[in-house]
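Work Package 3 (structural annotation) set out to generate three-dimensional models for the target panel prioritized at the project kickoff. During this period the team completed the workflow that converts sequence records into discrete structure tokens, so that structures can be stored uniformly alongside our sequence database. As a representative example, we reproduce one entry of 204 residues exactly as it appears in the project archive.
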Amino acid sequence: MKLHASLLVAAAAAALSLSANAQSAKPDLAKGAASYGAVCVACHAADGNSTTPANPKLAQQHPEYLVKQLQEYKSGKRKNAIMQGMAASLSDDDMRNIAYWLASQKAKEGFASDAELVKLGERIYRGGLADRGIAACAGCHSPNGAGIPSQFPHIAGQHAEYTDTQLRHFRDGTRANNAQMMGIAAKMTDREIKAVSDYIAGLR
């Protein structure tokens, strides 16, 4: 019994060691660039700064956030037929390499388009709407939209159309991989979603 217990302890220690090594393995940016070029470039542009408003800009995004999204596309937790198909072919190493390569690319600035509506967007982003329990976006995504690595995504300069779509998807349950965002979006009107999306597009 003692020998059996010793073997179990040794096996557990080995598993923990392998897990730690896997987590500490450095991403290969060259492989990330190659995989990105083969799988992602058509929709997200050569440097991750998508020029199509329906497709998100990925440059300078927190790599932990990107890996999480790719894993959830692959598992089906986040729904999108195109992205689920793309993620299905990627290994965990591929995802990590691509994510860290994208994080190394500089995000291009965006811009707001509606001077009047953006005032409402700024109010919601910076202060929320306390009377309706809508939290300030800045509380999680930071005042300049930089986000918090491994927790909340970088959103400054993101296409307004993409942000608008995601908030609507959170609201109607089409996107269900973040309970906090679903709860916030559920309380927002179409106009408020459009306003905050436009404001985010112009954040620096």
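The domain at 29-104 is CATH 1.10.760.10 (Cytochrome Bc1 Complex; Chain D, domain 2).
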